[in-house]
Amino acid sequence: MRDLLSQIRSCTLCASHLPLGPKPVIRVSSASKILVVGQAPGTKVHASGIPWDDLSGKELRRWLDVGADTFYDTDYFGIMPMGLCYPGRGKSGDLPPRIECAPTWHAQVLNEMPQIELVLLIGQYAQKYYLGKEKEPTLTATVRKYEAFLPRFFPLVHPSPRNKIWQKKNPWFEEVVVPELRNRVHAIL
Length: 189
Fold this sequence. Notes:
By secondary structure, this protein is an alpha/beta fold.
């Protein structure tokens, strides 16, 4: 795993497309039990090098009912986004994750993580990549149908403050999905 992480952190595969340059953000170990697969680092995470080091991460940890010490302990949680580097800004927010990362690195990393019991698929990019044709036509429908993907995968909406409106329109998420997520996470931990 150490050699693989060194290769990933030296990756320049899509450097010409990255406005802030390559700075892969990944935290995993062979002992990780839960893998968090998100979208891509934002500018704050790019600067700090710490995944989920923002308001989205604070909300995700609330959903999981775990503190930062547990969340950042790679014996418990591995963190590997679909795009490992900040992709840049688009018209309505950050650009999608670079398409080169997941096919290049994800399978190699997962091969080194035999203890993974649960993969949290956060957002449409992770769900499309890992669930393929099994995912529903919309993110909302996929998250609502989360039980169909268990015990391996748990699809989630992104915990961004921008998704507060979605959460208000879908109270079932906080009432049903979050408690089940917490139960599964705590059972594994």
